[in-house]
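Last lecture ended with a question: if I hand you only a sequence, what can you say about the shape of the protein? Today we answer it with a concrete record. The protein is DUF177 domain-containing protein. Below, first the input exactly as provided, then the predicted structure, then a couple of comments.
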Amino acid sequence: MKFSLQKIKRESPYEFEETVNVDELERMDNDIRKIPDVKVKGNVSVKQDIYTFQYSIKGTMTLPCARTLVDVPYEFDIQAFDQFTDVDYKVKEDEEIHFIDQEVLDLLPYIKENILLEVPIRVYSDEATMDNIISEGNGWDLLQEEDHEELKANHEEEEQEKVDPRLSSLKNFFEDKND
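The predicted structure:
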């Protein structure tokens, strides 16, 4: 999604609406399993060499359920606000303003960044029941609480009966003295 700065200056306030492909987010190391094209709609205004973008990003991403790992569709509607300038000293005065060193501004990286910031920590499936939870995997098993308590008790019992091999010769120390 690229904008010519000259065109924005001529037609300010400049309005835009476009469908953008952001499927690159699926290949990045995050929880997004699938994200179809998103709709971006907004406007740009120019004031004192600062280009102010106010836009919304709407779409749906597929994320894993925190309980069952099944796919969960997550709809989002992000309201974004970004400022750009091609004047050096204005960037140094305000950290929120991004510097543009070209005549064309690509808004796509900022759209992706806003989407990544919107990814929730956890989502839960409405159909999450004990029947469709994955109960075992490579090197792990899911236990019910009763099974866990029983396993823990057995393990503690074994630990108490076990004698440290370094101290095994002392086991008979008091028995020899009594004889």
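Comments.
1. Residues 52 and 83 are 5 Å apart (CA to CA).
2. The beta strands are 2-4, 14-20, 38-47, 50-64, 71-85, 97-99, 104-106, 136-137, 140-141.
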